[in-house]
């Protein structure tokens, strides 16, 4: 199934190769991945091996400075000496379709560059990340696939932040995977079975998410089994729920639980984890692990290409 999934994403990427900018273009792993992406018709890589000449930078700033009226020309010149900032700038200016970075830069640095130049989706205030999990033996509403969020960015989200994560993940799932998201907001409690401020926070997040997107299928608070097992949902969840027992998106209450759950499933169930995929930005941004292999970079770039394609169809 993992092979089938990646083959399907590769096929989608080839239908309309996107321009992917790699700010860490001098890195050998990035260079090898870029060659594969180009040779296999998956993407049109843009490698930034240095911040460019002063003349090139000046031309870009003159051409695109109107996009950043709050930044002085002097400030843009200084910021764009960083290849990471320059890559984000190229995406914001429409000269690249996706930013893929992180093999030499921290996640925080990638996020900061994206927030500074690319910006957030309308109505979304925080970045987050999603993981696409392929779990052997699991038979859910999307077969062996399910999405976890947030497993890599937001440490202690409040109710509004959790709603942001739910909405961003639903958007990512529609754009990247073509699913109709059914979002479960997870807790140790199901529909009042537990009483704690953390439960109240999840309930408030569900209310906020529904108010902001009335068409979104979202429910909570739900325990994990009530979210994904139909027979448990029937016993634990009163009334009708469009999500309980059939969730394909799991929103964890904090980074501790999301990260631990992701790694538990990877190690104990021998699951494949695709991501983390950054979300909440106006354009496509993908973060790499410092230890990424060529295959990892190619996989992340293919997901970024398919996501960028989906954004253009909206």
Describe the structure.
This protein is α/β, with parallel strands linked by helices and 314 residues long. It has 2 domains: 2-119 and 281-313, 3-Layer(aba) Sandwich (Rossmann fold); 128-272, Isocitrate/Isopropylmalate dehydrogenase-like (Rossmann fold, 3-Layer(aba) Sandwich). The chain is built from 12 helices and 10 strands. The protein has a 6-stranded mixed sheet with strand order 7-6-8-5-4-9, with helices on both faces. A 4-stranded parallel sheet has the order 2-1-3-10, with helices on both faces. Strand 1, helix 2 and strand 2 (43-47) form a beta-alpha-beta unit. Helix 1 (2-15) packs across helix 12 and helix 7 crosses helix 12. The chain is globular, with a radius of gyration of 20 Å. The relative contact order is 0.17. The mean pLDDT is 92.
Question: How do you describe this structure in short?
Answer:
The chain is α/β, with parallel strands linked by helices and 314 residues long.
Query: How far is the first residue's CA from the last residue's CA?
Result: 28 Å
The CATH topology of the largest domain is: Rossmann fold
Which geometry do the CA atoms define? globular
Proportion in helices: 40-55%
> What is the rounded Rg?
20 Å
Instruction: Bin the strand percentage.
Output: 15-25%
Named CATH architecture of the largest domain = 3-Layer(aba) Sandwich
What are the low-pLDDT stretches, counting only 5+ consecutive residues below 50?
A: none
Major sheet size, sense and barrel closure: 6 strands, mixed
Q: Structural class, from helix and strand content?
A: alpha/beta
Total strand count, please? 10
Number of domains: 2
Highest-level CATH class of the largest domain: Alpha Beta
Task: Count helical runs.
Answer: 12
> What integer is the average pLDDT?
92
